[in-house]
């Protein structure tokens, strides 16, 4: 669970025209890797296999893969990328990766795969093809069906963070690759690219059969997200913009906003009156709501041209904390939902 000031460091610089983007909607798996493997959605903690440790991430901490047999499994999900005739569901994947220079390009390295088993064969969702590959060398690949699809993303730069995202829409058969918030290519799932069934868990950082140890990811990973919907290009850009957070903690200010009503009823909108002497009219701000144990349950971006922000919320009864930040200054207030 993130500590108070680490939570504040999540401030993102969003475009002025972006309003009320809920990047947590449809999120079914989310690892922040704050010195643990706890899924923020299910609150389940995965068992580390091999030499997994924690290092400086792009947002707080990240998970480091340090040998050839390291991985962990996500909770079971119903996410099956592919065409509707094989039970395909809408899915989106997003994560930050930073490769170690000594290992970069030495061989194929896996980021995220479906698990073998259940009388079915898993599939590689995202992996890096090394320079010695006879096909699609030096690129990010998705093997989501019975054929590989090249992303148009070249070999990442060693020791630098890269954000990768992949969305798959079974209604159209289109899946789209993004690097650092920008679309790089699209492909269509037809014919022999239909996806085979697989177990619900995803393997993070290893081969789908839990063998082939030399294909383990080498480096640090952060902010892994799995969605049960196709996130938009704007949402991908917003998630990737987490890499633009300031390196210093935003200054915590008194005042800055007022909440009403408070307490608020279940499903009732929360209104935030923004103090324009603290947050300049027209600038982009982010509102994040955390539950009593520190889990982010709602994220929205707004423009502060109007002094009042209306936060529509699906929260259950309980005590929450509302954070408002522009990246340089942050303020927070408790709110009771009943």
TrEMBL record:
Origin: domain of life: Bacteria
Keyword Signal included in the entry's annotation: yes
InterPro entries: ConA-like_dom_sf, Secre_tail
Record keywords, A-Z: Signal
Signal among keywords: yes
Signal sequence segment: 1-20
Entry-linked NCBIfam families: Por_Secre_tail
Record-given protein name: LamG-like jellyroll fold domain-containing protein
